[in-house]
Amino acid sequence: MLHRWRDLQPLAYLVAYPSLMAYQWFNGFHAVFFGIMLVLSVGLSVVQHHHTHLRIWKSKFMNRLTDWVLSIVQGVPSFVFFPSHIGNHHKHTHGPEDETRTYRFGGHHNHLLGYLLHPFQALTVLVPSLLAYIPRRAKKRDHWPWIELLSIVVVSVALALIDVRAWLLFVALPQAHGLHWLLASNYLQHAGARPGTGPEASDDGTYDASRTFTGLVNLVWLNIGYHNAHHLEPRTHWADMPEVHRKHVANVPPWLVERSLLAYFFRTLMFQSKRRKRTFKQS
């Protein structure tokens, strides 16, 4: 029923994450297991993203079930990726109409404060947009967004009533961690890059609008680092992104290709004053 056998990896994440959560709920905090949960919370945000672009299953029922389970486990409804990510970000990649373009908030920058503030700034834009999307779907007799939202609320409230401290530590905190990286990754992938105009842009604009990370982050988080390749071919399966990257990398400015996400983070965001990075100014 799977389209690709490589999707066993995201499904393993989907099983492992709540299993570790349940184990600690009943047996107490375990530092190693909790650390793994934090890694998986980001991994499942990536799974939600990939599943939106290219469905895991051949069965419509199984795809909806996966959406529903991901929504509850992550605390983020899966439907949000359709209006905000596919419907806007991929249409206007880092361009003037991209709702979460990094230079929308305080100018064209690439620094630690911008990174820390971006998730909160993005929410001020995304939440109203998503709230407007729900009634539009309801008019088309699609009530799935409500089902996802209500499921998240019911499960969260029920767990909090059972044990609020356990819920905060083992459920809400990892969910908030995953949400932070879901939103902050946009800053890491686009801050300092050229403001693009989406698929209709010239080759130069398209290649200059995203940053790529080629290191170990891709092994753990399902090739999410190949962001430029993903924007160029968003319907390509995540397992094929390294090949897409190799096909296009000659056209990508070298300063937008990084090996280590961690090294980039510390070099550019933490110690930017000691090393100037090229950035495009907003036109």
Properties at a glance:
mainly alpha
**Shape designation:** globular
Order of helices and strands: HHHHHHHHEHHHEH
Q: List how many beta strands DSSP finds.
A: 2
> Helical proportion?
55-70%
- Rg estimate, integer Å: 19 Å
Question: Helix count?
Answer: 12
Biggest β-sheet: strands ordered side by side in the sheet: 1-2
Strand content: under 5%
Return residue spans where pLDDT drops below 50 for at least 5 consecutive residues. 197-205, 273-277
Give the N-terminus to C-terminus distance in angstroms: 48 Å
Largest sheet: 2 strands, parallel
Structural class by SSE content = mainly alpha
The overall number of domains is 1
pLDDT averaged residue by residue: 91
Report on this structure.
By secondary structure, the protein is an all-alpha fold. The chain has one domain. It is 61% helix and 1% strand. It contains twelve helices and two strands. The chain has helices spanning 8-27, 31-53, 60-74, 81-89, 112-139, 144-162, 164-190, 203-207, 217-220, 227-232, 241-248, 261-270; strands at residues 212-213, 257-258. It has a two-stranded parallel sheet with strand order 1-2. Helix 2 crosses helix 7.
List the helices and strands and how they pair.
Elements: H1 8-27, H2 31-53, H3 60-74, H4 81-89, H5 112-139, H6 144-162, H7 164-190, H8 203-207, E1 212-213, H9 217-220, H10 227-232, H11 241-248, E2 257-258, H12 261-270
Parallel strand pairs: 1-2
Helix pairs in contact: 1-2, 1-7, 2-3, 2-7, 3-6, 5-7, 6-7
